Amino acid sequence: MRGFNATLQREVLLAMRSPAEVINPLFFFVVVVSLFPLAVSPTPDLLREMAPGVIWVAALLAVMLSLDGLFRTDEETGVLDQLLVAPVELYFTVLAKIVAHWLLVGLPLVLVAPVLGYMLQLPVSVLGTLMWGLLLGTPSLMVIGAIGASLTVGLRRGSMLLALLVLPLYIPVLVFGAGSLGRALEALPVNPVLAVLGAVLALALSLGPFAIALGLRISTGD
Amino acid sequence: MSDPNDRHRNPPLLQVDALGCERDERSLFVGLSFTASAGDIWQVAGPNGAGKTTLLRILAGLFGFYEGRLHWQLPATLRESMLYLGHRPGLREELTPLENLTWLSALHGQKQDAALMAALSAVGLGGFETLPVAHLSAGQKRRVALARLWLPGKPVWILDEPFTAIDAEGVALVEAQLRRHAAAGGLVIYTSHHQLAADTRQIMLGAHMPGSGAPA
Fold first, then answer.
1. Under an 8 A CB cutoff, do B107 and A82 touch?
2. A213 FRET partner, CA 20 to 30 A, in A36, A116, B121, B141?
3. pLDDT band at B213; cut points 50, 70, 90
C-alpha cells in the first residue's frame, strides 16, 4: 500500500492547483444534457423517454474526455518514469490516481445528475436509481478509460485514438446503466441490473489497475 | 570491458554482458560489456543520438527491448536501491519543490520533511520551497530534481544529463556530491558532455566504437 495515500493527496493537490481540468467535464455534462431539450422538441413524454440514454451517454463522454490528461502530463514531465522506477506496487499508485480522479470528476457528475434528470422530466421516484447507476457505473468507466489512456500516453495525438479504443468497451456499462433507469421508469425491479453494474465495477477495480500498469510500461518502452 | 587493474577493488554491483540495442532498425550499440563496482563513477559518453539515454533506461529497468545480459548484484531490489533521474526533471509544475519531493520520497519510503528542507537548501533553493515549480528557472528546476542526491538510502545513482541547465557553481556542487557518494561506496552512472575532474570511467557510445572502459 506504500504510495497510495501520498499519491491520492498529491492528485487532489494537483487538481486544486488547476481546477479547470476538474470543472470542465462537469460543465460538459451539464451543457450536453441541456442541449437536448433545445434540439429535440421539449415534449415531456419524449424527454422522459430519451432521458436515460442522454444522461448516460453524456456522462460517459464527460468521463472519457477527462481521461486524456490522466497520465499525459506525468509522461511529458518525466514524472511517469519516476513512478515506474519507484519501489512501490504500481497497482496501488495507479489505483490512487483513479480514486482521486473519480472523487474529483466522477462524483460531481453523480451529484448533479438528479437535477438534470428532473430537467428531462424524470419522475422523482427514479432519481435514486439514476444516482445508484452512475455511482456504480462511472468508476468502471474511469478504469476502462484509464486502460486506454495508459496505452495512448506516448502518442502525440492520442485523444482520438483513445476514443476509438475505449468507446466500444463502454457499451456494456452503457447498456446496463441506461437499462437500469429504463426499467425504473417502467416500474420493473432494478436491483438485478444494478448488481451487474456492481459486478463490472468489482472486476474493473480488481483487474483494471494491473492492465493500466502494464499499459504504462508498454507505452514507456518496457 | 572495465579496466582489469581495478577489478578486485570492490565487489561488482553491475555486470553487463554483450548488451545490444536496436531502435528504429538502427543499431545503437552492440556488444557492450562492462563491470561497475561500488565506488565507481561511470560516464556514458558519445555524440547526440548515440543511445546514452536508452542505455540508462535499460540499466534502470525502464526499457526492455535489448539483447545481452544485465546483472545487478544488490542487497535489495534494484528499485529499492536506485535513484534514477531522467533528462526531464520529473516534477509537476503546479506543485512546489517541497510537495514534489515529498511525494517522491514517500514513494521511496524516505519521508522526512526536515531532510527535504536540508536537501533543498543544499542545492541553493532555500527560500524557494513553497513556490510553484512553474515559477522557477530551468536551472532551478534541475536543482530541485538534483536535491534528491542529498537524500540518503540509495547506493546506485543513474543520472541522465544531471548538469543540463545548471550554472558553473551548481556543476561543482553536484560534482562534489557525486564524488562523495562514490567515496562512500556508492555507484554513479551518468551521461553528460561534461567531463568530471575525478577518475571516472567511460563508456563510449558512437558510430564505430561499441564500448570501451578505460579510465578517463
1. yes
2. B141
3. very low
d(CA B177, CA B173): 6
Instruction: With respect to residue B214, please indicate whether it lies within any of the assigned structural domains.
Output: no
Distance of residue B58 Cα from the nearest chain A Cα, in angstroms: 9
Nearest CA in chain B to A74: B92
Are B64 and A74 inside 8 Å of each other by CB? no
B210 in a domain, yes or no? no
Residue B180 lies in a domain: yes
Q: Give the pLDDT band (50/70/90) at residue B201.
A: confident
Could you give the ipTM of this predicted complex? 0.88
CATH of the domain at B48: 3.40.50.300
Segments forming the whole domain that contains residue B189 = 4-204
* Residue of chain B whose alpha carbon sits nearest to that of A84: B62
Asked if A10's CB is within 8 angstroms of B99's CB, the reply is yes
* Closest C-alpha among A3, A93, A90 to residue B108: A3
How many structural domains are present in chain A?
1
Of A14, A84, A222, the CB nearest to B94: A14
Cβ neighbours of residue B181 closer than 8 Å, sequence gap 6 or more = B149, B157, B188
